Amino acid sequence: MEIGTRADSTRGGLLLLGLLVLVYLILNLGLPRLPIDGFVKSYVLRPAMWAALAYVVLRLPRQQPVARRRQRSSLIQLALLVGVFHVAVLVICGLFSGFGRSPYSFTPTGILTNIVYVGAMLAGIELSRAWLINRFSKRHAVLIIVGATLLFTFINLSATRLLGLGANIESVRYLGNTVFPLIAASLLASYLAYLAGWRAALAYRGVVEAFWWFCPVLPDLSWAFTALVGTAVPIIGMVLVNSFYTSDPSAALPRARRQEGALGGWLATGIVAVLIIWFGVGLFPVQPVLVGSGSMRPALDVGDVAIIARISPSRIQPGDVIQFRSVEHPAVLHRVIEVEEVDGRRYFVTKGDANENPDSEPVLADNVVGRQIYTIRDVGWISVAFKELFVNRTGPPAGEI
Questions:
Q1: Can you tell me the mean pLDDT for 346-362?
Q2: Do 251 and 306 have their domain in common?
Q3: Is the pLDDT of residue 70 over 80?
Q4: How many whole angstroms separate alpha carbon 355 and alpha carbon 332?
Q5: Residue 341's beta-bridge partner residues?
Q6: How many CA atoms are closer than 13 Å to the CA of 132, on its beta-carbon side?
Q7: HSE on the CB side for 137, CA within 13 Å?
Q8: Residue 70 is part of which domain span?
Q9: Do 200 and 316 fall into the same domain?
């Protein structure tokens, strides 16, 4: 027996959103503080909460996806193929970067425990995603899909870790390894849920998650490879799914035809967003760096964004502003005031324009990231203010540029 009727769908949506928020708060704030065994918290209570959420969704009035019934099975199969393609790309990348042993248990008990853990989580998330999208996307499909993408990305992330992001290499790696791939995968899952329901979204995510959790040998990818594959493959999958759906001549697609232009623009925006992400995490020869301190005033001020180009250390001359790694900070922007050659090795003496003295240690050529080629004034002040408001109040900064 279902809860209510279609007339109660709005209340059901509010109930579901409230339950998602409650689950997130309990998992991130409540469970860690309980004085009980860690195994019980992680592998009993967590899957129980996700399973309970899935049960609630199944009791709500059913919501139909946009694709016709005979198209859904084909879209589910295509979602499976995109998942297999994603895994294949990961394996191919592993041939270049190497492989390592999985951190998960492969005893019969361990496998069964992980199946329950992953299965409950995926069921709770994908059933909720599909219900919300197909309940509220009748008029504003793109807006609802993007909103669901961000919501379910956030649910998979730690709020503490997000608030701890700063202008340092660890934060960049976390964004590339975790946040951006999650956004891209969530976007594809949301689009699949919109077209063909929770089964299509689960088909794609299930294949990828099964690979990470149940393959005994995993590719040991660098953060750059992870960012590249994790963002590119889902966007490619979206293009394939959209092309298949909107070009199907076997069924009338009035809603699809009305929204094809909007969805096409949305996909183009997604591709541009991927390129921006790759630019931001340093997969191109140039990358942006947020200035987080005043050591280079007046040339660079807090909130400016410096564009850094990779360059051979042999081309760096006194007067250049370079980004480099030091023991104290993973990313520093200072000016070269002197170039030294010692035993065939090139060193750079650096100094912040606003500092009285040069930096304590010369910079080895191997530690140079690149040279500043352009400055965009003041565009990063929101990020700096956010860090000052939320991060520095909870602990010391991770490092300044």
A1: 90
A2: no
A3: yes
A4: 13
A5: 346
A6: 28
A7: 29
A8: 6-280
A9: no
User: 187-206, pLDDT tens digit by residue?
Assistant: 999 999 999 999 999 999 99
3-state SS assignment for residue 55: helix
Using a 10 angstrom Cβ sphere, with 0-12 exposed, 13-18 middle and 19 or more buried, the burial of residue 323 is buried
User: Which residue type is seen at 223?
Assistant: W
Segment 62-87 mean pLDDT: 92
- 75, 244 Cβ separation under 8 angstroms: yes
Mean pLDDT of 118-135: 94
Asked if residue 57 belongs to a domain, the reply is: yes
Q: The tokens of 149 are what?
A: 């993408």
Q: What is the mean pLDDT of the chain?
A: 81
> Which of 321, 325, 380, 329 is closest to 354 using CA atoms?
321
Going from the C-alpha of 366 to that of each of 281, 334, 370, the distances in angstroms are 19, 16, 11
| Helix-then-strand count for the chain, H and E | 13, 9
DSSP E strand boundaries for 266-398: 286-290, 305-309, 321-324, 332-342, 345-351, 363-364, 368-376
Whether residue 396 is contained in a domain is answered as no
CA diameter of the chain: 81
What lies within 8 Å, CB to CB, of 98 at 6+ separation is: 219, 220
Number of structural domains in the chain:
2
Q: Check whether residue 197 and residue 298 sit in a common domain.
A: no
3-state class of 345 per DSSP? strand
pTM of model > 0.90: no
Token pair for residue 400?
A: 């300044």
Tokens of 221: 């990818």
User: Pairing state of beta strands 99-101 and 217-219?
Assistant: antiparallel
* Amino acid identity for residue 86 in this structure: H
What average pLDDT does the segment 360-376 reach? 87
Q: Name residue, tokens 């630019």.
A: 279
